[in-house]
């Protein structure tokens, strides 16, 4: 069934529920001298390229490849359209390796035809913090599909991760592979219901008119929680403490330090937004919420070409009820002109999703670990990790 994945150190469907297998690495690391020194062979019309994401020109090539060939929904109505600024942010976190930004070019035209990336991350699984690669942006040009290029690209990124003495990875996909650690549901909260209906992202409910629908999703003009404000550089230590403490309760989560929080959570225009609640009395930071910007191209609509979507990222409540905090997040997202606010049923999201008029989408997201076995599949609420 899975000619490639059967050969890889991942949980195999046949081992499902085998309690004799221990948690942890599936294969031991090999000495670095035994890691293959040369790149894997590509079919002869193609060559490897390392993409310099500091180069405006390369960044544009990657942007265009993804804009035209990356992930679509199951009815091919929408395609992710990560911005250049977003890609620069997502691919250059603290300690990133340029060698993990891997492209494939056609030798003849030098056109970029495929891409895969890794970034380093410390991921905690129960009580162990494991150095991992987060793999993302695997993309093969539509005209080169089903030629088994993806397995070569995955082997090549694996080799380059091994060269940095890292032996585990995490990734997400909309497709089922051997074997998910958990499967999450996408939920969607309409902010601009008329546009969402016009472009086929959502439908008018039964016995609903457009004007009743617009009224249903109306939000106040400004957030209601006193002390709610944008996160600033000076908040990094307090947000790091709040977030580390919150994430420690999940089975799998990133192990963020202050450098990571500055990179991943300090607001960056058009990329990531973060808000917190500062107690008007003690000036303590008690609550935090964040979302990232990921528009989708609308394929074949006369009136609109872009769907502006916000994706829930990391949220922590210690004082403000999470429901109220996320309602304020919806309000600021609406003020920033997002059409829809998306979220997964990870962490403590499920209760607010139902209360705040999110509805389940038609997409799921499966989470994976490479070369790390965990005993039983997790519930989404046991997962404290959001990938981009
Ligand atoms: S998920 C988004 C992936 N990208 C897209 O969906 C974009 C649109 N699609 C495409 O570009 C986020 C192509 O369809 C792709 C496959 C490139 C997906 N993950 O070349 P072939 C990520 O980026 C397997 C993993 O003929 P293709 C996460 C498939 O099961 N494997 O197919 C990436 C089959 O293997 P099997 C996937 O359609 C994580 C083989 O590829 C996959 O022309 C990567 C077929 O290859 C997917 N999303 O190209 C793994 N989709 O065994 C990282 C298909 O079943 C692992 N396949 O025969 C860790 C590495 C680091 C380790 C470090 C220690
Ligand atoms: C790696 N970082 O399918 C990511 N999106 O539900 C790669 N559906 O937007 C993996 N089909 O349900 C990504 N509207 C996997 C996801 C790929 C993209 C995807 C889904 C997630 C999605 C929308 C549009 C469906 C269009 C037709 C959807 C319904 C919204 C409705 C709003 C009102 C309340 C009920 C729900």
Describe the structure.
With 388 residues, the protein is of the alpha+beta class. It folds into two domains: 5-172, Gcn5-related N-acetyltransferase (GNAT) (Aminopeptidase, 3-Layer(aba) Sandwich); 183-382, 3-Layer(aba) Sandwich (Aminopeptidase). 23% of the residues lie in helices and 27% in strands. It contains nine helices and 17 strands. The protein has helices at 56-69, 84-91, 149-162, 193-198, 210-216, 236-247, 258-265, 322-335, 349-355; strands spanning 46-50, 78-80, 101-106, 112-125, 128-140, 168-173, 182-190, 228-230, 252-254, 272-278, 285-293, 296-298, 306-307, 309-312, 316-317, 340-344, 359-370. The strands form two sheets. Strands 1, 3, 4, 5, 6, 7, 8, 9, 10, 11, 14, 15, 16 and 17 form a 14-stranded mixed sheet that branches. Strand 3 and strand 4 form a beta hairpin. Residues 2-5, 69-71, 133, 135-140, 145-151, 154, 157-158, 161, 167-169, 171-173, 175, 177, 370-371 line the site of 2-oxopentadecyl-CoA.
CATH classification class of the largest domain: Alpha Beta
Distance between the termini: 29 Å
Order of helices and strands: EHEHEEEHEEHHEHEHEEEEEEHEHE
Count of discrete domains: 2
Rg over CA atoms, rounded to whole Å, is: 21 Å
Ligand inventory reads: 2-oxopentadecyl-CoA, ligand EN5
**Class per helix and strand makeup:** alpha+beta
| Percentage of residues assigned to helices | 10-25%
The CATH architecture of the largest domain would be: 3-Layer(aba) Sandwich
Mean pLDDT: 97
The low-pLDDT segments are none
Count of individual helical segments: 9
| Named CATH topology of the largest domain | Aminopeptidase
Silhouette: globular
Strand content: 25-35%
| Major sheet summary line | 14 strands, mixed
The number of E-state strands comes to 17
